[in-house]
Amino acid sequence: QVQLVESGGGLVQAGGSLKLSCAASGRTFSTATMGWFRQAPGKEREFVAAISVSGGSTYYADSVKGRFTISRDNAKTTVYLQMNSLKPDDTAVYYCAASRSGVSNTYYVRGPHNYNYWGQGTQVTVSS
């Protein structure tokens, strides 16, 4: 079992930065693929970024590539999402997710149904 707790959301002006954290409890973290998803009001949950078990491979949605960076610290059982050059379109609730399969390829990590555990979400609001 894995419990995920996100933090770091808030209100920021366009062009600003935020760093989200997701603290995980449980032994599965060290063998889990980790991902970030987001959901804006009236929209479906969408993939943002993912990182492999070792941290050696990262994956991004085209909409955030070059602006967001995902990383993980397995010793601290925490995954991060550094968000720079934020835009109003980035406004959403951001969710951390863990896939206990440990599989990571560009197709697999984009599917929310491939993740077994989810955090409660943290709100990110970007004002124009």
Descriptive overview:
By secondary structure, the protein is an all-beta fold. It has no helices and 11 strands. The chain has strands at residues 3-7, 10-13, 18-25, 33-39, 46-51, 58-60, 68-73, 78-83, 92-99, 117-118, 122-127. Strands 2, 4, 5, 6, 9, 10 and 11 form a 7-stranded mixed sheet that branches. The chain has a 4-stranded antiparallel sheet with strand order 1-3-8-7, with no helix packed on it. Strand 7 and strand 8 form a beta hairpin. It is globular, with a radius of gyration of 13 Å. The termini are far apart. The model has no long low-confidence stretch (mean pLDDT 96).
Taken from the alpha-carbon principal axes, the silhouette is globular
Strand fraction equals over 45%
Order of helices and strands: EEEEEEEEEEE
Count of discrete alpha- or pi-helical segments spanning 4 or more residues:
0
Taking the alpha carbons of the first and last residues, their distance comes to 40 Å
The main β sheet shows up as: 7 strands, mixed
**Cα Rg:** 13 Å
- Ranges with pLDDT <50 over ≥5 residues? none
Q: What is the number of beta strands?
A: 11
**Structural class label:** mainly beta
Average pLDDT across residues?
96
> What's the assembly state of these chains?
single chain
Please bin the fraction of helical residues.
under 10%
